[in-house]
Amino acid sequence: MTAPWRGSVKGKLLALTLLPILLTLGVLALLTAYWTSTYTDRQLYMKVAADLSVAQGSLNIMQERQLERLVQLSNAWQVHDDLVQQDEQRLKELVARIRRNHDFDFLRLLPVDELKQVAQQQPSLAGLTSQALAGQSLTGLSVITAEELQTWHPDLAEEAKVEIIATPRARPTQRKVEDRAMLVRSLHPITNAQGEVTYLLDGGLLLNHNLEFVDTIRELVYGPGALPEGGLGTVTLFLDEVRITTNVPGLMSGAGAASKRAIGTRISAEVSDQVLQQEEVWLDRAFVVNDWFISAYEPLYDLQGKLIGVLYAGFSEGPFFHQYLITLAELGAALLIVLLISAFFVWQGGNRLFAPVKRIHDSVMAVRAGKQDARIGQLQTQDEMADLAHQFDAMLDELDSRQEKIQAAAEQLEKKVEERTLSLRQKTGDLEEHIELLKATRAELFTKEKLAVLGELTAGIAHEINNPAAVILGHMDLLQAELGTAAEPVQEEIDTVVEQVYRIRAIINNLLQYTRPGQMVDQLHTLDINAVTQDTLALVRHALDKQEVEVVQKYQEVGHVQGNRQQLQQVLVNLLINAGNALDHQPGKVYLSTHPWQTATGKLGVEIRVRDEGKGMEPQVQARVFEPFFTTREGGNGLGLSVSRSLIRRYGGNIQVESKPGEGSCFSVFLPRQAEINDEDEATMRQLLSGLGVVN
Asked: Cα dist. 695→432, 574, 682 in Å?
């Protein structure tokens, strides 16, 4: 079978060639991605910093132009100084008309003699009047509270209100409305002919909800072609943390959502910490309302140098990131194409280079498969590969020649081996069968050795038990004689005690006979199996009732069998007690039944079944359950079932068990009608010696 290309020399050559190329292209791709990302980020942050500078410059220009208007107006009024002195009402009308014509949200002419009183009522003028009285013009940002603005311009106070909207990633707040006003404010003193300051001209533009301001800057900074397709440039003015004017889209969804501004939303917490708390410029990506933007934030200060808000410029990150991914995909595709082309040329070169090697490999595999005529033949090349192929073919020819000689010698050797093997088989005969019989006999002798040890122990125990049993019988006779007729109420109990003492002596004698092969003397009687079974149940009734075990009985007409009553009861008592102990829950049931039975040779007999509903036995336990001294119960001696089976087998019967884990166990006692006394040890030994040719 041809080796897969991945395990072939050609495949390894391809891997060794392409791996450096692949590593080089991978490193190149990573470096390109890193350089592209770093360069792109640096360019984006440089751009947004420049955009913020343009926005700040636009705000400064706006302030300067407003001050220039005030200066021009003051110069015009100074020419008509007589008008100021003669008609104050006409002067107020002139101020109102100029405010409307020159895009001022408010314009006031404050007399110098009233400045001190006005400054006390309007805190925003505090600290500024002294500079104005000194002839200095001021322009910049100013924040006016709703109470102050309400005193001299109620309409402007209502127009300045901004409803605060809950914003993702912003610091939580309980405020609902921002009612302060941020103004571009200019102050210019008006002097008379003697150069004395007579009036203070106070004018300004409200920035709350001023969409023209941010839209003008956006058109200037983010005009056509400034951003990729789908890019969104935005400018925002914050009063503290609240957007008072912006062109960032709002949080609303549905129809008309695109035109909704995010006025009233708040700055994100991380930007607020850096810009408003630490008073530092932010140049980084930031979460703006509901999306990520490349952002620049700069703190704003009023005319008194107090931090009052933030100026923001930025553009959406998504289009740039999308373009970045497209660039990486194009680069990856180009590198993949280069890799595939390189792999193609390497593969083609490998095919031409290793064609002779493949022919040699195919020839070797053919010889291995049994094709004796497989040869490489002539190669088109005249190099080391051609010499190797020629030497390989010569080696195969020599191997074929030697193989023929070896085959002929092997045939002669095979004939001699067959002749000698036939002779050996005639001598050995059925040696394998004798070995198996020897193994079985050895196992049986091991069991008998255990029983011999048990016999020595039992002899001593029997002597000690028979003595007190004789004493009990003597005292029971004496007790019955002394009581006379008075013993009649307990006569049944006395008879039971005497019967059980005789049974103890019979069991001891039977155990002695069981442990002394060839020395047993059996007393056979014709037994009514159903009657013996019921009598046996009475002997164990007390023990089973104590365990809350119910015995379910079912007897069939089975007739009589030959056997020993005490030994059969001993076997049944052992099986019933074991069945009660096998129950893993109390109360429980044990099933006792009798059935007709017929042997394989047609002889009739009886089957006694004892079945429990216990936990059952595993196959390995079931195989050893009749071995002497084997037990799974704590405190058991492992002799009950072994002794029981030996007792039954003496009369030609047997005991078998069927058990499944979790379904209980069933022990079956098989008894022939006509007892057949046998000695298992003698029969087994005769069979072994006969097989070995020792006896006939």
From this structure: 19, 40, 13
Distance CA 450, CA 529 (A): 32
Residue 68 three-state SS: helix
Classify domain 466-692 by CATH architecture: 2-Layer Sandwich (3.30)
Pair type for strands 549-554 and 588-598:
parallel
Cα separation, 514 vs 571, whole angstroms: 13
What's residue 688's pLDDT? 43
Q: Is the pLDDT of residue 288 over 90?
A: yes
Task: Report which secondary-structure segment, H or E, holds 401.
Answer: helix 384-428
Using alpha carbons, select from 352, 280, 346, 330 the residue that is nearest to residue 310: 280
| pLDDT for the residue numbered 490 | 82
Rg of the chain over Cα atoms, rounded to whole angstroms, equals 59
Report whether 670 contacts 676 (CB < 8 A). Answer: no
Instruction: Provide the pLDDT for residue 446.
Output: 59
What's the helix, strand, coil split of the chain in %, to 5? 55, 20, 25
Q: Where are the domains of the chain?
A: 32-321, 466-692
Cβ–Cβ < 8 Å for 183, 281: no
Check: CB of residue 331 under 8 Å from CB of residue 32. yes
Q: Which is nearest to 295 in space by CA: 254, 236, 226, 209?
A: 236
DSSP 302: B
Main-chain dihedrals φ then ψ at residue 255, nearest 5 degrees: -65, 135
Query: Does the pTM of the predicted model rise above 0.85?
Result: no
Helix axes 9-79, 88-101, angle to 10 degrees: 160
**Residue 62 in contact with residue 186, Cβ under 8 Å?**
no
Q: Distance between CA atoms of 140 and 56, rounded to whole angstroms?
A: 12
Q: Flag the least confident range among 309-318, 400-409, 593-602.
A: 400-409
Q: In what order do the strands lie in the sheet with 197-206?
A: 106-111, 197-206, 181-191, 138-144
Q: What residue type is assigned to position 159 of the chain? A: E
Q: What is the spatial distance between Cα 126 and Cα 303, in angstroms, rounded to a whole number? A: 11
Each residue's pLDDT tens digit, 456-489: 566 667 666 777 877 787 888 888 888 878 778 8
Q: What is the distance between the alpha carbons of residues 150 and 209, in angstroms, rounded to a whole number?
A: 18
Task: Give the model confidence (pLDDT) of 423-462 as tens digits.
Answer: 666 656 555 656 666 665 665 655 556 555 555 566 667 6
Cα distance between residue 47 and residue 222, in whole Å:
11
What three-state secondary structure class fits 151? Answer: helix
Q: Is the pLDDT of residue 332 over 80?
A: no
**Rounded Cα distance, 64 and 263, in Å:** 26
Q: Using CA atoms, how far apart are residues 16 and 10, in angstroms rounded to an integer?
A: 10
Distance CA 648, CA 571 (A): 8
Relative to beta strand 291-301, strand 549-554 is unpaired
Number of other residues whose CB lies within 10 A of the CB of residue 498:
15
Helices (H) and strands (E) in the chain, counts: 18, 18
Q: What secondary structure letter does DSSP report for 585?
A: S
